[in-house]
Specification:
Blueprint: H1 4-12, H2 19-23, H3 26-48, H4 54-70, H5 72-75, H6 89-103, H7 115-141, H8 146-157, H9 160-169, H10 173-188, H11 192-205, H12 213-222, H13 226-248, H14 254-266, E1 292-293, E2 296-297, H15 298-325, H16 327-361
Antiparallel strand pairs: 1-2
């Protein structure tokens, strides 16, 4: 549903502005300042806490070093000819790209354990963080005033767990979050082919992206976007073969190799929670998911909870879609939302005026 501000913009239909004109606008300036500060602070913390998490950062450094030296094909050869890696090929290509950039300054890769190489290995996660801040701003700005959108983006930018994981720990979860956010954004915009394609990229970065596939598939089928489904699936398969063929050297081995790689990853960590302070962490870290609560294993409980939430999301989507397709009900809800937003905007304006007065006094 459109926001009040979007409605006003549609009514005025102002001519599109150039890039330099947009930069001069207060909204764009505040966003750029936020992005630059968030990036610089992350780089600073990355250098100060260069060691990161010993296991993860050493894995990423070793993978980046080896794939830069060997290339992707030799990297994925069976051990001992290749190197052990529990990540899909997509992220190894990312490490290869950043490794090649680093090699411009250190051709022999002699300082691979130094601050510079470690920082370059952390950069995919850091840059993805910044991209996520931007996407969160753009998504929320569709529905709320700029003040709330920029505040939401700021909270995400400096949320301790998000900030710590990429800049200090050295993990890359923000990369998969980036592609999942993009996928949701394209789904909202009814760009189903792009949503499918971006989800495929996410799955090639980290297996957790697979969790979004049923939802994307359901929404596409519910909206009968069959043409876009075909385009999205075809382009995704083309990407999969393009990235995996250099590893297998055989078209017929691409899908079997990927299947074996993903299954082996799934079976590698049969634990409730490894290093994440989630619900299962209350029962202890690095503990088997075969343990039981009320005679039901943690794994089964997890599937039930996740499945229940998934069904709720699908149900909510269907109800929301039916409401939007009912003109009378949709108009009533839009009018109610418009009045509510007017009320909120009025209150926010008063709060801003009051805060400006306090700031001037100080």
């Amino acid at each position: 549903m459109s926001s009040e501000i979007n409605s006003i913009d549609l009514e005025k239909k102002e001519p599109s502005k150039s890039f330099f004109e947009k930069i001069k606008e207060p909204e764009t300036k505040s966003l750029l300042i936020l992005l630059v500060i968030a990036l610089l602070v992350r780089i600073m913390f990355s250098v100060l806490f260069n060691t990161g998490h010993p296991t993860d950062i050493n894995n990423f450094r070793a993978w980046c070093l080896e794939v830069t030296k060997r290339g992707v094909h030799d990297f994925f050869l069976p051990v001992p000819k290749g190197i052990w890696c529990d990540y899909p090929p997509g992220y190894i290509y990312v490490l290869y790209f950043f490794g090649k950039i680093y090699q411009l300054f250190d051709p022999l890769l002699q300082s691979w354990s130094g601050t510079g190489f470690t920082t370059i290995v952390k950069m995919p996660g850091i840059l993805a963080d910044i991209a996520n801040v931007y996407l969160i701003y753009k998504l929320t700005r569709r529905y709320v005033p700029n003040f709330i959108a920029i505040s939401t983006a700021t909270i995400y930018a400096f949320q301790p767990a998000i900030f710590y994981e990429s800049a200090v720990w050295g993990q890359m979860d923000s990369v998969i979050v980036l592609f999942l956010l993009l996928s949701i954004m394209y789904l909202i915009d009814h760009k189903y082919a792009l949503s499918i394609f971006v989800t495929a990229i996410g799955c090639l970065m980290k297996p957790q992206g697979i969790l979004l596939i049923p939802f994307i598939g359901f929404v596409c089928l519910y909206n009968k976007a069959f043409k876009q489904i075909i385009i999205g699936v075809a382009s995704s398969l083309a990407l999969v073969f393009l990235l995996t063929l250099p590893i297998t050297n055989s078209i017929g081995q691409v899908l079997p190799w990927l299947w074996e790689h993903y299954v082996s990853q799934a079976n590698l960590y049969p634990y409730s929670s490894i290093q994440t302070f989630n619900l299962w962490a209350l029962t202890g870290l690095w503990t088997k998911d075969s343990r039981t609560i009320l005679a039901v294993s943690h794994k089964t409980w997890g599937l039930l909870l996740f499945g229940g939430f998934y069904v709720y999301c699908l149900y909510y989507y269907v109800i929301k879609s039916k409401v939007e397709k009912n003109p009378d009900l949709n108009n009533f809800i839009n009018e109610s939302e418009r009045k509510l937003k007017e009320y909120r905007a009025e209150k926010l304006l008063k709060i801003k005026e009051f805060s400006d007065q306090i700031a001037n006094l100080v």
